[in-house]
Specification:
This is Endonuclease MutS2. This protein is of the alpha/beta class. The protein is about 50% helix and about 15% strand. It folds into five domains: about 150 residues, no CATH class; about 80 residues; about 220 residues, Rossmann fold (3-Layer(aba) Sandwich); about 80 residues, SH3 type barrels; about 80 residues, Ribosomal Protein S8, Chain: A, domain 1.
Length: about 850
Amino acid sequence: MNIAPQTLETLEFFKIREHLARYTAFSASRELALALLPSTQLPEVRQALALTSEARQLLDEFPDLSIGGIRDIRRAARHAERGGVLDGASLLEIAGTTMAARQLRTRLLKLNPELFPLVIERAALLPILPPLEDEILRAIGDDGNVLDSASAELGRLRREIRIAFARLQEKLQNMIGSATVGAALQEPLITVRNGRYVVPVKASHRKDVRGLVHDQSSSGATLYIEPMAVVELNNRWRELQAAEEEEVQRILAALAERVGLAAPLLVAAVEAIAELDLAFAKAKYATSLRCVAPEVVNWSPDVPLPPVADPQLVDPDRERAPLLLTEARHPLLEQSTVVPVTLWLGASFRLLLITGPNTGGKTVALKTTGLLALMAQAGLHIPAAAPSRLPVFHHIFADIGDEQSIEQSLSTFSSHMRTIIRVLGALEAAPLPEELWDADHWKLLSEERPPALVLFDELGAGTDPVEGAALARAIVERLLELGVLGVATTHYAELKAFAYNTDGVQNASVEFDLETLAPTYRLSIGLPGRSNALAIARRLGLDPVLVDRAHSTLDRSDAAVEDLLAGIHKEREATSLALLRAEELRVDAAKYRDRLEHEWQQFQQQREQETEAAHRELEEELREARGELKRLRDDFRSVSLSRQWLEEADQRLKDTAEQVKAVARQARPATVAPRTQEPRPLQPGDTVMVRSVGLKGEIVALDHEDATATVQVGGFRMTVDLRELTREKGQPETANSRRDYRPERTVSLPPPPDVSMTFDMRGWRAHEVSDRLDRYLNDAYLAGLSQVRLVHGKGTGALRQIVRDVLQTHPLVVNFAGGGRDGGDGVTVATLVDR
């Protein structure tokens, strides 16, 4: 669907296109600007606006960016494609265009694809042109003439032409200087007639100079004769010139043939660059008008609006209105003096009735709304402030101005009514009388009721006020039923009351200053305009008696309405001041809230940092205490045992354990948030399942550093990884159950273990031998074994050597030797000290 040309003309969209065309760089993009039309497809409108935004940002970042020396070469390319020959100037334009297109394509493709995806997409469409540029520049000079270097034949011919010309001139100069010919000449000079060099001879001396007469003067006194002595030289010079011209034409034809082969690519390149230049022109035009990119929304009269996101807003109705123009300015008016208009439609009301005095700005507000909608749908930014948004209208109807016609015997009222009938017929998709239907201007809408915008100026004017007001009311009611968005201006007081009492219709007015007797051009939505005729008459000096008499003749209801409107205006001014003061207080409160929140966050962060520092200090002390316990345990394993030493070690372990408890209690935070119950750690005395062997046992000791536990399984002990242990059912598992399960923390020697005499170490790594063999020897000693058999295998002998090095220095080993018959070199038998 397209917007009716009558609407484009009424809203002066054609002037917008002319202003836009001034910012284009060459004729192809100017043609696009002058042919620009609004689109009615939502994706197309959004993409066009996005391209304009990208072009605007691109020009902001790279002000020197331009399309270069591109020319509209489409006509020349198509002429060459049809077999025509191009002159040197046309070929130079083609070469310059191919060069500029190549440079522009290279530069645009280097842009950030995240910031300029649409510009890059169009730059990628620029065809890669054949090497015409070099061929043309090698053959054509800057002045458009074919160069001598264009071909060897042309170079030879031009050298011979210069030689022939020099000979011809030399011969003629000699003849002029001779006594015989010199005396017969009217003047001693050489001139050209019919492309041949001649001398001016006196008519009376015709017989003194033999030759061909090419011309004579108007008086007949002078004959221009080509002497017979130079005829052959002239012929030679002319023949060479003809040969040169033929060679030049051959070269131009060859170049034109190459251009003709590339004509489709050249035309495509020009059209693609024209689209880019149009986007740059839109960007420049938007910058000159201080425009913003409007938000384009997907709105339909049959789809409900979303709920208000923030009910605390001063005017939540504006937030969800599909049409919102904030501080909009008419683009064809002087921007420094125009008064901005803020207007919205489509939320709680869809039709806006603007009332107020003449020349007060009603029609400007009407035109601004329609023209900005057309601009947005044409991919142009609009002269307004953010936020501004618009639906994509499938139809925009505008009835503005007086279109009375004397020739057709149509009054103002008749003219307006014909337009209104067309509009309603198109909106209702109903057939119209043939005499009222204009297929070039109006098209029927589908039954899906796509979005439409209706703009009526002076609705119901030009006839009896009572009938005109009733008719205007009926038209507004019908527009409500059709679900369109619309703005209308009127002077009828009856429509003010109708708008006040009708859902979907809202009053608006243009303000008027009674002090200066001049309109302010500011639009107020929600208030109808007042009739200021009597007040103006009083201010201008009309006799107050006459003003009072006129007031007394007014209908009481009309007078009451005017008084009510005056009161509403005063209350609105007071409310506006109160809202302004409330907004100032809200802003101040928000600043204090933000500052307090920032200070609270800093306090929380500082407290967390101090708490973490204290925890790190306590953890360090805890690690030192645990290290002391490990050293004591190592001493316990490695020294020879005596009663006195055991008593001292027992006391030292008790003291260290108490120290660890004290440090652990200090490390707990003062306040702990509730946590889910977690299983308590394994402790000595717990019954566990050793998953690797599938046997149950009791934990005898824990080594937290190595993450291992010593488990008594039946008659023997084994050291296993803590990850292989699972607590048996019936054992205390949670922090809560730990209140009733408090195992003894004092250290005491375990009962003698049940240890095997054979200790198999085959497959061990070197770093595992020392610690694990030491523990086995301690356990064997405590179990009362006097001799143990260590199986390490033969292999390379490295493991055997490590085992014997440990036995050599171990305090519990008396001596050791090989296994002899019982294993040979793969076994070492060690004898332990007596208990």
